[in-house]
C-alpha cells in the first residue's frame, strides 16, 4: 500500500512499532488497523536517497486493503494494458468494516 | 525507488517493456537508465485499489539509485530514529554519470 505520513504519524510509528499514517482526506492520524484490527507491525524501516519516501516492511495482520486483499496491489496490468485481479481476497470488507443497518 | 509517471510515461512503459518516468524537475520523460545504462526491465505491473499508484516489479540492471546503490532505500532507520547505510554500494556514481572536466 501507499499512504502518507506527517511528522506526528512518523514519530508515533517509531514509538509504537506499528504503522501510523496521516489521512489527507480526514485531516487526522490514521492508526492503520484501529477499526479493522488489521494492524501493521513494523519489521524494518528504510528511507530513500533524498529522504522524502519511507519504505515500511511490516508484518501485516489480515488484509491491508479496504477491499479485503492482503495488498492494495491486487490487480495486475497485462502487456496490452488490461487489468485483472491476481490475488485472493482474504476477507469480506462488509464483515470487517460493518454494514449499514437497513 | 519511487518516481512519478504521466500518461505518456505510462504508455511508453507498457509499449517498451522498460520503466519510463516523468521528471517533475525537468518537465520531461525520464527513460530510466538512458544515460547510465541501468535500465529497468519490466517483469510485472500492479496497480492499487484506487488506481493512483503503480508498482513495477523490474529486473534492475546495475544500480537504480543515483548514489550507486541497487535500491534508493539503502538506509535503514533504527528504533530510536537514527539512520545507517544498510546495503552495499554497487557502483561509483562519478564513474556512471561522469565527472566534470577540470
From TrEMBL, chains A, B:
Domain of life of the native organism: Bacteria
Domain Phosphoribosyl-AMP cyclohydrolase per the UniProt entry, residue ranges: 1-74
Gene Ontology molecular function terms on file: phosphoribosyl-AMP cyclohydrolase activity; phosphoribosyl-ATP diphosphatase activity
UniProt pathway: Amino-acid biosynthesis; L-histidine biosynthesis; L-histidine from 5-phospho-alpha-D-ribose 1-diphosphate: step 3/9; Amino-acid biosynthesis; L-histidine biosynthesis; L-histidine from 5-phospho-alpha-D-ribose 1-diphosphate: step 2/9
One GO-annotated biological process of the protein: L-histidine biosynthetic process
Entry EC number(s): 3.5.4.19, 3.6.1.31
UniProt entry tagged with the keyword Amino-acid biosynthesis: yes
Keyword terms, alphabetized: Amino-acid biosynthesis, Histidine biosynthesis, Hydrolase
Chemical reaction(s) catalysed: 1-(5-phospho-beta-D-ribosyl)-5'-AMP + H2O = 1-(5-phospho-beta-D-ribosyl)-5-[(5-phospho-beta-D-ribosylamino)methylideneamino]imidazole-4-carboxamide; 1-(5-phospho-beta-D-ribosyl)-ATP + H2O = 1-(5-phospho-beta-D-ribosyl)-5'-AMP + diphosphate + H(+)
Membership in a protein family: In the N-terminal section; belongs to the PRA-CH family.
NCBIfam families hit by this protein: PRK00051.1
Record-given protein name: Histidine biosynthesis bifunctional protein HisIE
Organism: Novipirellula galeiformis
Lineage: Bacteria, Pseudomonadati, Planctomycetota, Planctomycetia, Pirellulales
